[in-house]
Amino acid sequence: MAFINSSRFLGFTGGRGEPLNRAIPVIEPKLCTGCGECVSACEAHAIEVRGEKAIIDYERCSMLNGRECRACVDICPREAITVIE
Ligand code: SF4
Ligand code: SF4
Description:
The chain has helices spanning 37-41, 71-75; strands at residues 3-4, 24-27, 47-50, 53-57, 81-84.
């Protein structure tokens, strides 16, 4: 699994050896309260809360798999999730 948080994703290659070239949702840990709203909203079951911070499993995330989804971005009451192109 690939759990990435914050802008550290920029070095993420998706485990395939090549840089990702697509939009991805990124969680800012400083803003996240661990409320779990995004976990419930994610139909791909790509988010979990650990240590009161949400983290995304990019291998599951629909956005990285070419499907349109912003459910986590739209539901977060703290605006802690943004999409980075
Ligand atoms: S909805 Fe926002 S604040 Fe709540 S767990 Fe998810 S990222 Fe954190
Ligand atoms: S973009 Fe969609 S699939 Fe990806 S983590 Fe957010 S809610 Fe889940």
